[in-house]
Specification:
2 helices; 3 strands; 14% helix; 70 residues; alpha+beta; 3-stranded antiparallel β-sheet
């Protein structure tokens, strides 16, 4: 397995029928996804996550939208 192949979703999906979560690691209909969208890239400036009221623009948890300022 290469570094690019390592993700929690792919590892859980390898459990096959024992996977209790359904589809993981993709954003598509029928897949389980939690999505956070920030106003800037937190990989470039991790400090952005310290101010979620301002910087967090979209929150989707288990398919339900909790915040949408896009």
């Amino acid at each position: 397995m290469t570094a690019g192949d390592r993700s929690s979703g792919k590892i859980v999906a390898m459990s096959g029928k024992r996977n209790p979560y359904g589809k993981l690691g993709v954003i598509e209909e029928g897949a389980m996804a939690d999505i956070l969208i920030y106003s800037a890239n937190p990989l470039e400036d991790v400090a952005i996550v310290a101010d979620p009221e301002t910087s967090l623009k979209l929150i989707i948890k288990d398919g339900d939208v909790f915040k949408n300022e896009l």
